[in-house]
């Protein structure tokens, strides 16, 4: 279920961002909200797995369109102020119970109304149809099936079919071949490439993209398998398990907002990187010591540390991507960062499931009279979670996942900490503050996106 959602978000994210440069943010955003509402209704009314998958797929498409919110912020707000607003955006969390599908609808309606009334319609002077002709449609058509072919084996191999099966090998080969051809097309053929080479000219920007991917891997893996820990090791029911995840779900947005405000105040990014990455890697490493006898206070402190580190890191990564790219590339940089994060989330589910399944099956074979697979073990988790031998199996398996996340965050953290970071320039004193009556000129960013003359857009704030 989560795989369908993450996969849809990943493959549609970049095309949605690319088309929004031409048709405008407002119509693209409204379409995304409409699709999300449709997906919520389908998922809420689903009476079988096929219908629920369709609903989650539609929601995944709309989730890919969430990058438009970050792009709009880059259009309207000065670089130094974006640190705060992007951190607020990152604080929004999602949930997935049936009644929560319905609860999505009122916020969607309010958002659509607000966008319709407050966000101007930024239309390029050359016209939408002429702009659409300049979109890198060939790149989009190569990217989407190639991304699906590449990610499907990682999300299904070892679970639905073995890695040695042609069902895993053939899509992987096709995906690699397609992505290679996409890189060649973007480099030598595309006149207005969807993936701009200018985004990868600075090592610090590349490290930020890698950091987004690792953030996606670690956050998804940790959240998914903390549920297993709290339910299987500590014996919590569904309600208490949700409460036990609050140390992360509260501390991540809190740290992101505080980090954003501090970067806006000081103009410095590097401090957040030097604090966030080590705190994240060390805190994830401390998850190794969580077991059935760990005091609850210690568990809370460890998990709060994970959330504070992750929130600081994601805030610093978002600002770094914008501060180290050209103003005209900022929208593309945000889309690329979201793409890396979504791909990382897909891989986080895949890696976690593969490692957990293999380790569980291996360790269950060491338990006398254990005749169940990892999948069946999880299905009867409520019945066997009081068995000390079974609890030990889960603890040892989870420790492998914590070690993987800690190592990944530590490695990428070292790369990020070794980079040089620019200062966030203060607001120019000659520029007056924007008021409700003023308009914002989006410079010529969109013109560089579609190859036409400068855009004269009036965004009513």
- Count of distinct strands: 2
Average pLDDT rating: 76
Overall 3D form: globular
CATH names the topology of the largest domain as: Growth Hormone, Chain: A
Strand line-up in the sheet with most strands: 1-2
User: Which structural category do the helix and sheet elements fall into?
Assistant: mainly alpha
Number of helix segments? 20
Weakly predicted, low-confidence segments: 92-100, 428-461
Description:
The protein is mainly α and 461 residues long. It folds into three domains: 1-126 and 429-461, Growth Hormone, Chain: A (Up-down Bundle); 137-190; 200-427, Growth Hormone, Chain: A. It has helices at residues 2-23, 25-45, 49-64, 67-76, 79-90, 98-103, 105-118, 128-133, 137-156, 166-189, 203-233, 238-244, 246-266, 270-286, 296-323, 330-364, 374-379, 381-384, 388-417, 445-450; strands at residues 439-440, 459-460. The protein has a two-stranded antiparallel sheet with strand order 1-2. Helix 1 runs antiparallel to helix 2, helix 9 runs parallel beside helix 16 (330-364) and helix 14 packs antiparallel against helix 19 (388-417). The chain is globular. The two termini are 38 Å apart.
């Amino acid at each position: 279920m989560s795989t369908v959602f993450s996969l849809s978000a990943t493959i549609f994210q970049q095309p949605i961002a690319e088309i929004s440069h031409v048709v405008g943010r407002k119509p693209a955003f409204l379409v995304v909200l409409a699709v999300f509402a449709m997906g919520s209704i389908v998922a809420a009314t689903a009476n079988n797995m096929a219908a629920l998958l369709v609903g989650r797929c539609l929601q995944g498409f709309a989730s890919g369109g969430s990058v438009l919110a970050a792009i709009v912020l880059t259009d309207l707000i000065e670089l130094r102020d974006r640190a705060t607003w992007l951190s607020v955006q990152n604080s929004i969390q999602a949930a997935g119970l049936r009644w929560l599908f319905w609860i999505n609808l009122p916020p969607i309606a309010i958002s659509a109304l607000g966008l319709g009334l407050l966000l101007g319609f930024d239309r390029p002077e050359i016209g939408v149809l002429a702009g659409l002709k300049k979109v890198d449609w060939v790149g989009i058509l190569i990217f989407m099936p190639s991304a699906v072919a590449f990610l499907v084996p990682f999300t299904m191999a070892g679970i639905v079919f073995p890695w040695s099966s042609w069902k895993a090998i053939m899509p992987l080969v096709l995906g690699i071949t397609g992505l290679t051809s996409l890189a060649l097309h973007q480099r030598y053929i595309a006149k207005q490439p969807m993936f701009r080479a200018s985004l990868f000219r600075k090592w610090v920007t590349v490290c930020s993209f890698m950091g987004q991917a690792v953030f996606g891997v670690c956050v998804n893996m940790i959240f998914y398998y903390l549920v297993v820990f709290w339910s299987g090791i500590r014996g919590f029911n569904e309600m208490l398990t949700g409460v036990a995840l609050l140390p992360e779900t509260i501390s991540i947005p809190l740290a992101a907002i505080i980090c954003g405000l501090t970067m806006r105040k000081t103009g410095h990014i590097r401090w957040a990187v030097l604090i966030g990455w080590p705190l994240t890697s060390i805190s994830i490493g401390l998850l190794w010591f969580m077991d059935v006898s760990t005091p609850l206070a210690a568990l809370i402190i460890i998990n709060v540390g994970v959330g504070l580190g992750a929130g600081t890191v994601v805030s610093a990564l978002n600002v770094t991507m914008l501060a180290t790219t050209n103003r005209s590339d900022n929208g593309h940089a945000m889309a690329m960062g979201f793409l890396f994060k979504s791909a990382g989330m897909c891989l986080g589910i895949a890696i976690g499931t593969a490692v957990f399944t293999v380790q569980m099956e291996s360790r269950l074979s060491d338990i006398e009279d254990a005749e169940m697979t990892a999948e069946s073990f999880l299905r009867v988790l409520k019945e066997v979670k009081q068995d000390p031998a079974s609890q030990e199996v889960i603890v040892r398996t989870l420790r492998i996942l914590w070690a993987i996340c800690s190592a990944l965050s530590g490695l990428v953290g070292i790369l990020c900490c070794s980079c040089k970071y620019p200062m966030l320039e203060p607001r120019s004193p000659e520029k007056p503050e924007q008021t409700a009556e003023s308009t914002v000129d989006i410079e010529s960013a969109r013109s560089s996106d579609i190859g036409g003359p400068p855009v004269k857009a009036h965004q009513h704030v």
